[in-house]
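Worked example 2:
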Amino acid sequence: MTFLPWSEDYKVNIRVIDNEHRALFDLVNALHLEISQGKGERVVGSTLSALIRHIEEHFPNEEKYMEQCGFPGLRHHVSEHERFAQTVRRFKQQFDDNPDRLNTDSLLNTLKNWITGHILKSDREMIPYLRGEK
């Protein structure tokens, strides 16, 4: 069973954002698989780095769309992105410092809970603005 399954519920109907969200799901699922299969530090570290790079590209892209459509919750949304990015970077730093001491359950659950909650709540709030309905 997939750790973080994609469903149509996560779509915001902007192809670029949806594709980036799906890539985010893919990275988290790859990380989960690597951890559960006991892959080496280099593999897990590489996927964590790829996740950070993806976040650093995706968040500004999403924020650009929100700014263009006049989404009033942009400032709050940006702060949510920043806090999450800092959290992921902290996990990566913990991993780099001592891979054996990283609480992988905490990492994976944090990723899963934040991503699903953020997309289903915060990202969905921008949909009427993206569609020009507000």
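The mean pLDDT is 96. Residues 30 and 47 are 8 Å apart (CA to CA).
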